[in-house]
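TICKET: design request
STATUS: open
ATTACHED STRUCTURE:
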């Protein structure tokens, strides 16, 4: 379980996150929503230990985040941030192999190679394994990084806006892949995402932030409501039913 207790983050005395506390369910897709500047990416970066909180405590499986050994934490938690990229020219397979480093420390075993192969197959990247990352489309490259995260084989996967710059077809494919990782492999996925219809269709639990504070947290059914969405986004959003799911209409 991931728990936050009184988390704050300040830059030059100005609070970007203030007094945020919550406990997250496991084996779910947990969506972080809210307007730009709400504090979503900051919270995710604090959980992933990319940045330090100014105040408060994060616990991963009951253990203070600051007490985790870096190598051990990398066996429990995968972080794919907006700035995750490799400057070295790598092939898809080389990138995915990099995900095994916390386990192999650079000496790939037969088991490591088997897991890499599974990650390539699971993300349908086997045919692209020898292609260089800079030769791929944005969607293919994003999928390759997710494959690296799968190969890392952690309980928790943190994704900061993974649908950025993806077309509709690729976005749907990525969200279905994440859904399968939860349903078939028991992963817990934390995702910062702006498209609330993807949230409605694929997420299980929602954390809604506004002006650096926790505004709402709960199931999709509890959050995807007109009154709650109005409070989060300061706009009226109509909700329609489609195949048992709630579609948010915010174009008018």
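STATUS: resolved
RESOLUTION: sequence designed for all positions
ATTACHED SEQUENCE:
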């Amino acid at each position: 379980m991931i728990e936050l207790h009184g988390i704050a983050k300040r830059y030059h005395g100005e609070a970007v996150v203030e007094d945020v506390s919550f406990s997250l369910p496991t084996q779910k897709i947990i969506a972080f929503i809210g307007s730009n500047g709400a504090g979503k990416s900051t919270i995710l970066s604090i959980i992933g230990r990319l940045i330090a909180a100014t105040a408060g405590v994060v616990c991963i499986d009951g253990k203070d985040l600051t007490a985790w050994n870096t190598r051990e934490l990398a066996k429990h938690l995968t972080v794919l941030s907006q700035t995750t990229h490799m400057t070295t020219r790598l092939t898809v397979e080389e990138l995915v192999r990099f995900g095994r480093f916390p386990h192999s420390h650079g000496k790939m075993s037969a088991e490591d190679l088997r897991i890499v192969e599974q990650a390539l197959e699971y993300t349908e990247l086997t045919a692209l394994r020898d292609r260089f990352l800079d030769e791929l489309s944005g969607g293919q490259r994003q999928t390759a990084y997710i494959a690296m995260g799968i190969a890392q084989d952690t309980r928790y996967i943190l994704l900061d806006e993974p649908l950025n710059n993806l077309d509709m077809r690729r976005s749907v494919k990525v969200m279905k892949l994440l859904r399968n990782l939860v349903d078939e492999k028991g992963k817990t996925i934390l995702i910062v995402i702006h498209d609330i219809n993807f949230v409605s269709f694929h997420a299980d639990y929602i954390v809604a932030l506004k002006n650096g504070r926790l505004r709402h947290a709960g199931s999709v059914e509890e959050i995807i409501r007109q009154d709650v969405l109005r409070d989060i986004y300061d706009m009226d959003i109509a909700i329609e039913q489609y195949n048992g799911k709630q579609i948010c209409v915010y174009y008018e």
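CLOSING REMARK: The radius of gyration is 18 Å. The chain is about 35% helix and 30% strand.
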